[in-house]
Design brief:
The chain is of the alpha+beta class and about 375 residues long. Helix content is about 70%, strand content about 15%.
């Protein structure tokens, strides 16, 4: 019951009697309207006989209504119908025993009249019209009222049953979820216990290791001072070694630079020597009437390409006919005149050559005005 909302429970208890009362009242109004419409058709069924005066309107009304009420099932179902039929002037035609004494005397006198008078009276009453009043009530504790009440009680019971079943299903579902949650928590609890045991075992292991480390620390603390002194000495030695290493590295860098420069010079000399050898071979092959000293070859190699071209023109003339060469001057040394001639080319170029008694020409030096002093010094040493 705790799963059923109290509002729904209250409505299921309170609404059946309310609906019963409302339904009874509505049904009474509906049946009353239908009964009035039906009685208007039932009250007068033989108007021709009434116009002929065979019997009075009262007799027609009472006879028709009596037969109608005997055939109707309303009384058995608990519907109480009260019918009152009156003329326009208030004479009660149905029920037949209702009315004051004066009216009954008039009706008795009316029945004693002949057919003509009866017909005339019937015509007047029918022409004025009849007034039919119907009162309809449904008795309590009757078949109809009890059926209506049982229907609403049954409907409320069905609603309650549905709510109870739904509440039970919801409760069962929640109970299953609760059990599943409990099983899940139990499983988590078991896993947590296992993990806790593992943690406790590791904790004991760590405690044992900590104890061993403490003992080792106590043993090592005795040698800490000696180790600190030794560490200081090692640090001092390390600093000295680092300083020595830095000095050696600087010295290595200096030596490496010197070696690089020497290698570069050696390579340049090698390249220059190779070029000089190639030039010497070429000049000696082309100019077979001339001899060239190493100084002359090196000087020719040191010239720029333009100067080499101009100088080689003079060398070609010397090789073919030295008399065609315009000699600038004879060279004089410290000891006096030397048998060396100087020829200019390209304004600042100089060629120094010597011709012996056999007519062989030896080119002693080739250079420029800038190298003239070195060339003359070399020639002086050559002629000594």
């Amino acid at each position: 019951m705790k799963n059923i909302p109290y509002k729904i429970l209250f409505l299921c208890i309170f609404l059946p009697p309310v609906c019963y009362i409302v339904t009874i009242q509505s049904l009474e109004g509906y049946l009353q309207k239908r009964e009035i419409a039906t009685l208007n058709d039932v009250v007068i069924q033989h108007p021709d006989a009434l116009y002929e005066g065979r019997y009075s309107v009262r007799e027609e009304v009472n006879s028709n209504l009596g037969r109608y009420l005997k055939k109707s099932l309303k009384a058995r179902l608990g519907v109480v119908v009260t019918i009152l039929v009156k003329t326009k002037d208030g004479h009660i035609l149905y029920p037949g025993g209702v009315g004051n004494q004066g009216k009954e005397d008039n009706e008795s006198g009316l029945q004693g009249l002949n057919y003509v008078e009866t017909a005339a009276e019937n015509y007047r009453i029918l022409n004025d019209g009849l007034q039919v009043d119907v009162g309809l009530k449904i008795r309590h504790n009757s078949w109809l009222s009890n059926s209506i009440l049982v229907f609403y009680i049954f409907l409320a019971a069905v609603v309650l049953r549905f709510l109870v079943k739904r509440g039970l299903a919801e409760a069962e579902r929640k109970e299953e979820e609760h059990l599943e949650h409990i099983e899940k928590l139990m499983s988590q609890l078991d896993n947590t216990k296992n993990r806790l045991q593992g943690v406790i075992a590791k904790e004991q292991d760590y405690l044992g290791k900590i104890g061993e480390l403490k003992r080792e620390k106590q043993d090592l603390s005795r040698d800490v001072d000696g180790l600190l002194e030794e560490m200081e000495e090692l640090e001092e030695g390390l600093q000295k070694q680092q300083m020595s290493r830095e000095d050696l590295e600087n010295e290595v860098e200096v030596l490496r630079g010197e070696l690089d420069r020497l290698k570069e010079r050696s390579e340049k000399r090698g390249r220059k020597k190779k070029v000089s050898e190639n030039v010497a071979k070429r000049l000696r092959v082309l100019y077979k009437n001339l001899e060239f000293t190493d100084r002359a070859i090196d000087g020719f190699v040191a010239l720029t390409p333009d100067f080499q071209l101009k100088g080689e023109e003079v060398i070609h003339q010397l090789n073919e006919n030295d008399e065609l060469v315009s000699v600038k001057r004879k060279v004089f040394g410290k000891g006096g005149k030397m048998n060396v001639l100087e020829v200019n080319f390209a304004y600042s170029g100089r060629i120094y050559f010597q011709k012996n008694s056999k007519g062989t020409i030896r080119v002693l030096a080739i250079g420029t005005k800038n190298s003239q002093s070195q060339d003359l010094t070399y020639i002086g040493k050559w002629c000594e």
